[in-house]
Design brief:
The complex is a heterodimer of chains A (488) and B (1005). Chain A is an alpha/beta fold. Chain A has one domain (59-234, 278-486): 3-Layer(aba) Sandwich (Alkaline Phosphatase, subunit A), CATH 3.40.720. Chain A is built from twelve helices and 16 strands. The chains are: A alpha/beta (488), B alpha+beta (1005).
Chain lengths: 488, 1005
């Protein structure tokens, strides 16, 4: 087990702890350190942390979640859902009635996977040649092949996959999880989002919003690009460098002013909580730069995540950060593998492959494959896979009929997978029809996925609820069943 | 662990079981030996009773008593005597579909139980009426109808005052009565500095100026407080502050939201209307009436029409409503749109959560799913769009525009007739004469020759092939759907052509003056034929069109005419899979098979003087019509212009001059003012969406509302009721003085904002799931008072803000420890509750204190972001020092998809949600935002400069001025010494930065 505080190895390089902090924080780390040291005398104030860890409802299998999201609509037919019938019918009309209308097009001919499928692992699950790395992990993965969404529109489908509702404004799964369980980390946000460096997914930050839960439960974006401040407002911007020197004195003054204000109002707990929040902020100023500084990771880890690869590297960095965050007690990390929808870029910035699936999935496949397979390997190597649930989601699948050289949206069937955290590896739940057009065997929605994930975290999804405008709201609405077949 | 915030009573099920047990006991005692009593009823009670029993009737279905079991639920009978297989009851208990199976959770019925019910129904479902059934039938009344909020408002007697307690008005007598009952006492009045700061933030959302503080503190008159309240209520800042509260429950924003989060350039007019309406104290009933039906009541008065921006204030999904080709997805998006609209109106005005009855009857309140769809029918004719603020002005504009357009077309035709310019065939397809005037996007239906509007069509049904029909103008001799087994007729005169292939006999969209539906590209070889100076004749397979050249030449003089153009493919299939043909008088002159990699093929054929018919045809290439978007670019009949005489030249110059002048006038015609609001249509039929699914339709429903309010009729009219009348009816229902919900809801909202918690702590839910009123009599007294004071909100503010309860201290309250033990949440108001500034007030206060606040009112919102036009537009927040960005937060341009990160961190809600009450959280990220956000640090710098301006170079004077500005008081000696030391050691800006972070700045006592 590694120590949690400073595993980066900078001590060995002869840099003092104080120097290290100043270097990272543009100088403000010194203040943070002062607050940290002062805080040790105020350990009691930690109890006012609204994110303090809370016990689950029953013994959990997983302590943390890493959710990999592939926005745009990952094609199940070219990745995990093997359809020999589609090969047989290749090139023949998909719809002879003329009645079928997809999101943006009329169906073309049947189009089998652009990549051949092979069986892998002891379980013999089928995976296409697009994802050779993940294929090596099938014995750890559980697939749901009968996923459906209530909509084939990106924005609403993103919201549904994340919050269970197609409308914006409902708490994301990460918000619900931290609402239920708090966080094991005192010094980092409980729900962290690592967006794609190209931009935000369809629907934007609403996807990790807290909805009607307290704002503390919204996802905190950690900037993944190297050399940028990891969290907004973590330190004063460079324009205000002149404020750095006096911050220590300023904070002492603030503490004194607040203490005087509090004395006659000591029955108002919010005021004390606000004072404590400044101490928590100081700890965050230490821990956030530390977690995003990868310089202490060994070369073997760098090459595992392909950090030097121009396309795979940035996603590999997101995956590695996710491991480091979970290692430090962060409850829920969401990684985006892709950004918004647009056809104006040479390669689509996410999985929404309408025009040219070979071009776009051919680009994104190795990225997902490289990062996600490294993550599974690395979590296992660190002994974290057993207690970390890895989920890989998308908002919907793609159509078995061609749309030119691409595929249109398919809300009727798609595949998601989970691994680790109490998941029974090498298993699958449900199936789509022989063409992969509609979920056929045990059709299901994200409700069951969410219910299962909460179950693994020790939460009964029917009891994690909060009153909002007339109704006890849940992540799973009025639906959801734990997919016990997939639980080890 | 706050896993469940259990609002509805958790004991319902236990109570139900007891009730059922008691009922059965009685039954068992009186009736014996019937299969009903022995097995059927006990089974139904045990396995279905929790949701379909005496307390709860999901979907209106109750199974434990005879008359209701026979009657069935909202979706009709569930028991068909003699036919178990057709009975919904049996279907549900045997279903394996998670969405429909019953019971939905828990153990399934055993095979024996299913058999028992099946056999009973098959044998005729005999159910002799027992005494219990008779009793149930006689007393079948929903006890939820007795809930307090549905009952009429009755003005209660005001309790007597205690002589030893301070009473300012009736409010205090109600509150103190409740305090006395619990052994509590009211707190003493707060000092004047506290009161002026409290009142200023509360009524204006801004801190008081130091001069105003000192004036109030020094005011010797006994009614100083009352006069201060009046002065604040008269300030224009009041409307800016309280509009924020109303816009929270209207979930107002300046963009659509969802994936393609586009700008609403005309939304702000509604925001300004709310500010102004509050400032002039528009009576609250009128305030609501105009927001719901102003455009119907006074369509030419912007003061009415702009108000209806309320109906459109919420999110709207462009992709789902417009962009997608899928009708199923459109219906879903529209259903969500209507849900948002009716939920907003009903929760904002009446505090009823009708949205919970969208998929099934309301679980808690007596609101049926049918009533929900009756409300949907009220708004079914309303869509969100930019709407004119005056119908008359719009009509004037439209008339003038039409006149000018016609004049331009006539002048252009004159010019072209003289100059012999080319005749554009796409223009003819759009209804023109070939020289402008054809409407872009319009076309001709190849099945019948009728004009097709710009609305995209998909597959054409009811096609008869090879049946030429005359076009809408004489320039088009015929259109047809070709199928080439034999010679194909291509004109109405019987001319036939040979060589056309057999087709799928299917068609897609119209022949268009522009691209056809689903056309992927309008470019060929780099030339965009949708661009200026070019035209597109969209001709999707299978279709043909024959132009009458004789008619064309009759209107324009052309020497040596030729047909010229470029033909190409606008789909996405690279394999050549679609054919085009060009015939002149039935003779093939051009033909090819093309795909998207083929680019354009130029066509240039002479048209002999005697030629009569030019025919263009597209066919599907033999593989169905999946991908056959043929189009002709710049399809034109060109010739040499006839030589002009002097007189003709003069006439041409004259016509060209008039044309230019008219075009200029048309271009400079100013568009009438708009607001993002309701655009109406004849309401389509509204049917119950079974389980909330727009694809599963039940009975048709006419416009109406909830019947739980028994004092008013719930039916508005039948399904033929006109759109405007429906909204008039709901507005009248909501603002009827006998509606008990409307006045209770608004006085409770006012109370919520003045005291931090409402008398009902769920301000948008007065139903059974909401909170119980802490002081029911006071709530009703205030509601009655509002109506008798002609719905004046300012009078209610005055009443509340001048009460002793409002003036109480929050700090230094004698006996606070004991009072906290009795009422920790201060629901009984034994003191005032300290409050944190909301996000907008904190920002506005910062700007005020620093001296930067820009007081400009009204107009489009300030945009503190960089905007990047894209499929999904990108908004990046910025913090430069620009006075435009220092306006009050109410004027912020609110982006739905990209919440303002600084304000969101401070609990500014997402406008996706209806927000009756702001959350107040305390987080480390808030501390970081206030300490380090660029905006805050820049403001600290501006504040420091102001202090130097106001107080000179003396640090002590600077600190005193800072305390006066930010905290409304002087520092004491200790504070002054510490602050001066900080200023001297770390600088004035550092001191300002820290004071912005002080609890005393951020909290109001």
């Amino acid at each position: 087990m590694r120590t949690l505080a400073f595993p980066c190895g900078l001590h060995r390089a002869g840099v003092s702890r104080r120097d290290f902090l100043w270097e990272l924080g543009g100088g403000l780390g010194g203040v943070a350190l002062a607050a940290l040291v002062a805080d040790e005398a105020h350990a009691a104030s930690r109890t006012s942390n609204p994110l303090a860890a809370r016990p689950p409802m029953f013994a959990p299998r997983a302590k943390a979640v890493i959710n990999i999201f592939c926005p745009g609509g990952l094609s199940h037919l070219d990745t995990f859902d093997h359809k020999p019938e589609l090969v047989k019918r290749a090139g023949t009309p998909f719809d002879t009635t003329g009645d079928v209308q997809f999101f943006a097009s009329k169906p073309g001919n049947c189009q089998p996977s652009y990549w051949p499928f092979r069986q892998h692992g002891e379980c013999g699950r089928w995976v296409s040649d697009l994802l050779p790395g993940l294929a090596g992990h099938v014995d750890e993965m559980a697939f749901i092949h009968s996923m459906q969404s209530k909509t084939a529109l990106h924005g609403p489908a993103m919201f549904m996959a994340n919050s269970g509702f197609i409308l914006p404004g409902f708490p994301a799964m990460g918000a619900w999880v931290t609402y239920g369980l708090g966080s094991a980390s005192e010094d980092l946000p409980a729900f962290v989002v690592l967006p794609d460096h190209r931009g935000l997914p369809p629907g934007g930050p609403v996807n990790w919003g807290a909805g009607f839960l307290p704002a503390i439960h919204q996802g905190t974006v950690i900037e993944t690009a190297e050399g940028r401040p990891p969290i907004a407002d973590l330190f004063a911007p460079r324009d205000h460098a002149s404020l750095v020197d006096g911050e220590g004195a300023g904070r002492e003054f603030l503490a004194a002013v607040n203490a005087r204000h509090l004395a006659p109002r000591d029955d108002t707990s919010e005021l004390a909580a606000r004072i404590a929040a400044y101490e928590l902020a100081a700890r965050l100023q230490l821990s956030a730069p530390e977690v995003t500084n990868l310089s202490g990771e060994p070369a073997s880890v760098e090459s595992l995540y392909r950090l030097d690869h121009p396309d795979i590297g940035p996603f590999g960095r997101q995956c590695l950060l996710a491991r480091r965050l979970v290692e430090r007690g962060v409850r829920f990390v969401q990684i985006y593998c892709g950004a918004e929808n647009t056809a104006v870029k040479k390669i689509r910035p996410n999985w929404d492959s309408h025009e040219d699936l070979v071009r776009d999935h051919g680009y994104w496949g190795p990225i997902l494959d490289g990062g996600a397979s490294a993550l599974l390997t690395d979590l296992k190597a660190h002994g974290l896979l057993d207690t970390t649930l890895v989920m890989c989601q998308t908002e919907f699948g793609r159509q078995p009929a061609a749309q030119g050289k691409g595929r249109d949206h398919n809300a009727g069937a798609f595949t998601v997978w989970m691994a680790g955290g109490g998941i029974r590896g090498g298993t699958a739940y449900g199936a789509s029809d022989p063409l992969g057009f509609k979920a056929e065997d045990h059709p299901t929605f994200c409700y069951d996925l969410h219910a299962t994930a909460l179950h693994l975290l020790g939460i009964d999804h029917t009891r994690l609820s909060v009153y909002n405008n007339g109704i006890q709201r849940r992540l799973t609405d009025v639906h959801g069943h734990v997919l016990t077949d997939l639980v080890a | 662990m706050p896993i469940t915030d259990a609002r509805p009573p958790g004991s319902t099920h236990r109570a139900l079981l007891l009730l059922v047990t008691a009922a059965l006991g009685r039954v068992a005692g009186t009736v014996v030996a019937s299969p009903i009593e022995e097995s059927i009823r006990p089974l139904l009670v045990a396995r279905c009773g929790a949701c379909h029993g005496p307390e709860t009737q999901e979907s209106g279905l109750r199974l434990d008593v005879r008359h209701r079991a026979i009657q069935g639920g909202d979706f009709g009978a569930v028991i068909v005597p003699g036919k178990a297989a057709e009975s919904e009851l049996i279907r549900r208990i045997t279903s394996t579909d998670h969405e429909t199976m019953m019971p939905p959770d828990g153990e399934r019925l055993s095979a024996a139980e299913v058999r028992l019910l099946t056999e009973w129904i098959d044998s005729g479902a005999e159910w002799p009426e027992s005494e219990f059934d008779r009793l149930a039938r006689a007393t079948d009344r929903d006890p939820r109808l007795d809930h307090w909020s549905w009952q009429p408002v009755v003005r209660p007697a005001v309790p007597a005052a205690r002589p030893d307690w301070p009473v300012r008005n009736e409010i205090d007598r109600f509150l103190q009565h409740a305090l006395a009952e619990r052994g509590l006492a009211p707190a003493p009045e707060a000092d004047r500095r506290t009161l002026v700061r409290r009142l200023s933030f509360d009524l204006l959302g801004l801190p008081p100026a130091p001069e105003d503080v000192e004036a109030f503190v020094a005011d010797p008159s006994v009614d100083a407080h009352e006069r201060l309240v009046d002065r604040l209520l008269a300030s224009a800042r009041y409307g800016e502050r309280w509009a924020r509260h109303w816009l929270d429950i209207a979930h107002y924003a300046d963009t659509h939201g969802f994936e393609r989060d586009q700008i609403r350039p005309n939304a702000w007019r509604y925001r300004d209307w709310v500010i102004d309406a509050l400032n002039r104290d528009l009576p609250y009933d009128e305030f609501l009436r105009r927001q719901i039906a102003g455009d119907v009541i006074a369509p030419d008065d912007p003061d009415h029409t702009v108000a209806t921006g309320f109906l459109a204030a919420g999110p709207w999904d462009f992709v789902g409503q417009v962009e997608t080709k899928s009708d199923v997805l459109r219906r879903q998006a529209r259903a969500d749109d209507l849900d948002d609209m009716l939920t907003q109106v009903m929760t904002a005005a009446c505090g009823v959560t009708v949205n919970c009855a969208r998929c099934h009857d309301h679980k808690l309140d007596p609101i049926s799913q049918k009533e929900y769809y009756a409300l949907a029918a009220v708004f079914a004719g309303v869509r969100r769009a930019d709407a004119p603020t005056s119908r008359a002005a719009l009509e004037r504009h439209t008339r003038r525009q039409r006149e000018l357009t016609a004049a331009v077309a006539a002048a252009r035709a004159e010019v072209h007739a003289l100059a012999g310019r080319p005749v554009d065939l796409a223009d003819i397809v759009g209804g023109g004469d070939g020289r402008g005037g054809g409407r872009k996007g319009f076309g001709i239906d190849p099945r019948n020759g009728k004009e097709a509007d710009a609305k995209a069509r998909g597959f054409l049904s009811a096609i008869t092939v090879n049946a030429p029909k005359p076009g809408p103008t004489k320039l088009v001799n015929a259109v047809f759907v070709p199928h080439g087994a034999d010679d194909v007729p291509v004109t109405t005169t019987g001319l036939r052509v040979s060589g056309l292939p057999e087709t799928s006999k299917a068609g897609w969209d119209a022949i268009r003056n522009g691209p056809v539906a689903s056309q992927h590209s309008t470019k060929l070889d780099g030339v965009d034929y949708a661009g200026k100076g070019h035209t597109i004749l969209g001709l999707h397979a299978n279709a043909g069109i024959t132009f009458d050249l004789a008619e064309v030449f009759a209107t324009v003089a052309v020497v040596d005419p030729r047909f010229r153009g470029v033909v190409g493919y606008g789909g996405t299939t690279p394999e050549a899979g679609a054919d085009y043909f060009v015939f002149v008088d039935g003779t093939l002159v051009a033909n090819g098979r093309i795909g998207c990699d083929d680019g354009g093929t130029a066509i240039d054929v002479p048209l002999p003087p005697a030629s009569r018919f030019l025919t263009l045809v597209a066919t599907d290439g033999g593989n169905g019509i999946g991908m056959d978007q043929i189009f002709f670019g710049d399809a034109r009949i060109e010739g040499v212009p006839p030589s002009l005489g002097d007189e003709q030249k003069r006439a041409l110059a004259d016509a060209e001059g008039r044309l230019a002048a008219l075009e200029e006038e048309l271009k400079s015609l100013e568009a009438p003012e708009k607001v993002f609001g309701p655009v109406t249509e004849t309401p389509p039929p509204v049917k119950v969406n079974i389980r909330g699914n727009p694809e599963a339709l039940g009975d048709e429903v006419g416009p109406g509302t909830i019947a739980a309010v028994a004092s008013l009729p719930a039916r508005f009219g039948d399904v033929a009721m006109p759109e405007g009348d429906r909204r008039r009816a709901i507005a009248a229902w909501i603002t009827d003085p006998h509606n008990p919900l409307t006045p209770r809801v608004i006085v409770n909202r006012l109370w919520h904002h003045h005291f931090g918690t409402g008398l009902v702590d769920t301000p948008s839910d007065l139903g059974l799931g909401g909170g119980r009123p802490s002081h029911p009599d006071l709530l009703d007294w205030l509601a009655a008072e509002l109506v008798s004071r002609k719905w004046s909100l300012k009078e209610m503010h005055r009443l509340i803000c001048t009460s002793h309860a409002y003036r109480q201290r929050s700090v230094g309250v004698p006996g606070a420890t004991a009072s906290l033990a009795v009422d920790a949440e201060n629901r009984l108001l034994w003191r005032q509750s300290p409050r944190r500034l909301d996000a907008e007030s904190l920002r506005d206060a910062t700007l005020t204190v620093s001296g930067c606040l820009n007081p400009v009112m009204h107009g489009p919102g300030y945009r503190d972001f960089d905007y990047e036009e894209a499929y999904a537009p990108v908004y990046r927040y910025v913090t430069p020092d620009r006075p435009e960005l220092w306006r009050r937060s109410i004027y912020r341009f609110v982006v739905r998809s990209t919440p303002h990160s600084f304000l969101t961190t401070l609990d500014c809600p997402n406008p996706a949600n209806l927000t009756p009450a702001r959350l107040e959280t305390t987080t480390a990220l808030q501390s970081l935002a206030l300490l380090n956000n660029d905006f805050m640090l820049r403001q600290a710098g501006h504040w420091a400069k102001r202090l130097e301006r106001d107080a000179g170079a003396d640090p002590a004077a600077q600190v005193r001025r800072a305390y006066a500005l930010a905290l409304c008081r002087d520092p004491d000696e200790v504070e002054l010494a510490a602050a001066v030391t900080l200023v001297q050691s770390a600088g004035l800006v550092q001191f300002c930065r820290m004071l912005f972070n002080a609890n005393e700045f951020i909290y109001v006592d």
